[in-house]
From TrEMBL:
Transmembrane helix as UniProt keyword: yes
Official protein name in the record: Anoctamin
TM helices/strands, residue ranges: 52-76
Keywords: Membrane, Transmembrane, Transmembrane helix
């Protein structure tokens, strides 16, 4: 079961510093699934992660297009 970003961040912090508490775990009886309610920080984390990935995918394409356009303007513009 994948825990929320907030839970994982709090657990990570509790492993490293003495003053942080471990997050509280909820008892889930067998055969029942926990209702997944996304926190606002989880939604923000997904948006930031998607933006970061899109940045590395789209920026090289845009830069390559700009370089190609400048090259064509220089080469074809002299004729």
């Amino acid at each position: 079961m994948k825990y929320s970003f907030r839970y994982r961040a709090q657990e990570w912090l509790a492993e490293r510093v003495r003053w942080a508490q471990y997050p509280r775990q909820e008892f889930i009886p067998r055969g029942q699934e926990k209702h997944q309610s996304e926190d606002w920080i989880d939604k923000l984390y997904k948006i930031v992660r998607a933006g970061f990935l899109l940045w590395f995918i789209l920026v090289p394409i845009i830069c390559a297009s700009a370089v190609m356009a400048l090259f064509l303007i220089i080469v074809l513009g002299d004729k």
